[in-house]
Specification:
alpha/beta
């Protein structure tokens, strides 16, 4: 399968084509230490070490539309024991990332790339559904595909996420321009700004203005 960095590039380029903005994440976000541990060292406390199997062997991240994302891969057979061990490491990494995000922590999402051919494997589909139903630590989405992931695969995957747009970017600009040049009927703006009109009075005023037009 393509290297994780190449998969990240595919996703970033697909997100840009869909009209999203992208940005980088900090090294601490992908590191092995909690925010509080770094602060503790700054005041002279002992460093905390983690075992090698506590965290993923490979992990990367990005911001899309300013939403912080972790990107990892699922390896090995489509069995719960094999996948649960990997998920535990990714949850640990997500917990570390959340410690650096502060108020943004609830926005964190984890994208997991399954092996090639997983989209045709019923076992992987079942595991992916179970992983996505588990909201512990952060929201998770599993990318299933056929052979090597392509640009089209990346856009199809992102269409399941917050990156999806209800219409293409160019069409959105046209529609927004149309709204910008739209004028309210005579008297509507004044009626809406009238503090003496309650909801029922405002509706009645609109009906009357429409009748007189």
């Amino acid at each position: 399968m393509a290297q994780l960095a190449e998969v990240l590039t595919l996703l970033v380029e697909a997100a840009a084509r869909m009209g999203a903005t992208t940005g980088t994440v900090s090294e601490e976000f992908l590191g092995a230490r909690f925010n509080s541990e770094v602060l503790s060292e700054a005041v002279g406390r002992a460093a905390v070490s983690r075992k090698e199997n506590d965290l993923p062997t490979t992990i990367t991240g990005v911001r899309i539309d300013d939403v912080p994302l972790l990107l990892g891969e699922l390896l090995g057979p489509a069995t719960r024991p094999a996948i649960e061990a990997q998920l535990r490491r990714y949850r640990n990494q997500a917990t570390i990332a959340r410690s650096w995000l502060g108020a943004e922590a609830p926005n964190l999402q984890l994208f997991l790339v399954a092996p090639p051919g997983s989209i045709h494997d019923g076992r992987w589909k079942q595991l992916a559904a179970e992983i996505e139903a588990d909201d512990r630590t952060c929201r998770k989405l599993v990318w299933l595909f056929d052979h090597e992931p392509s640009e089209e695969d990346a856009e199809a995957f992102l269409s399941r996420t917050f990156v999806a747009r209800p219409w293409p970017g160019a069409q959105q600009l046209v529609q927004l321009d149309a709204v910008a040049t739209y004028a309210l009927p005579n008297g509507w703006e004044e009626a809406a700004d009238n503090p003496e009109l309650d909801f029922d009075g405002l509706v009645a005023q609109f009906i009357e203005l429409e009748r007189l037009a």
